[in-house]
Amino acid sequence: MVGGLLSCGLTHAGVTPLDLLKCNMQANPSKYTSIKCGFNKLIRRHGPGALFKGLVPTFLGYSAQGAVKFGLYEFFKALYGGEGDGNSNGRHKTLVYLASSASAEFIADIALCPFEALKIRVQTHPDFAIGFFGAALDIVATQGIKGLYKGLLPLWGRQIPYTMVKFVCFEKTVEGIYKHGLSMSREECPKSVQLGVSFLAGYISGISCALVSQPADNLVSLINNCKGETLSTAIAKVSIASLFTRGLTLRILMVGTLTGAQWGIYDAFKVINGLPPSGTMPSNSDSSKLGSALSDSLAA
């Protein structure tokens, strides 16, 4: 969970300028027509510092989401797959990855949703005149606490398929790299190579899940941009083609980069704590290492 907190919180905070522009291109497409034009307009009107508007809710929200998502994914993978040598349940590995990631993300989004609503309100509010606490007070005063969760359904629609593709694609890409690219097992490679494989597989999985979750991402931005917007009114405002294409190039760049970095940070944290990098079904030896690492941490 600590590794997930660091990997998601730091990476999402780091790509705040890209996320800021993406949200504005989705919510105000007539004003922000392209990546270059959008950045120029934001900097000219608000200064370079405005590119990090929404940094606080982004860091807090995705730190909470990352801790729950990565931590529970490992838990559910062991629960659904069972502990063994990884071969006995090989036929069912994909199903285990899908079920584990979906279960983890379902819970993680409940932690993320209020911060995502605040982030989008801060980033798309006219003239950026509203801050983190101002956005929270505004939403609660006008819509109640439920206003922070009105985007939960499209958030699930975005994040659950996103995470399922993200984890399955990562696991399968890692397997493919070691089997066909390196022609050696993970254990035979030095730690630096293993972490490089994690980053590459993470980047590839990021591109894949960006494509899958793009329509729901547009809906999340539209719903949280306006006070009275609902899922049905947001869908009615845009065409199906726009849901798939609006802000897509920027999102692929953003999601591919941050997903690769997430897996790199997450696995580096695991290696530092004596655990193997991600990309396999849990084994008895891995469970023993985890138990030892936790025991040492508690003792310290």
UniProtKB/TrEMBL annotation:
One GO cellular component, as annotated: mitochondrial inner membrane
Pfam families: Mito_carr (PF00153)
GO BP: mitochondrial phosphate ion transmembrane transport; phosphate ion transmembrane transport
Top-level division of the source organism's lineage: Eukaryota
Compartments where located: Mitochondrion inner membrane
Solcar repeats: 1-79, 92-176, 193-272
The entry's keywords: Membrane, Mitochondrion, Mitochondrion inner membrane, Repeat, Transmembrane, Transmembrane helix, Transport
Bias-annotated ranges (Polar residues): 280-290
UniProt name for this protein: Uncharacterized protein
Originating species: Amborella trichopoda
Lineage: Eukaryota, Viridiplantae, Streptophyta, Embryophyta, Tracheophyta
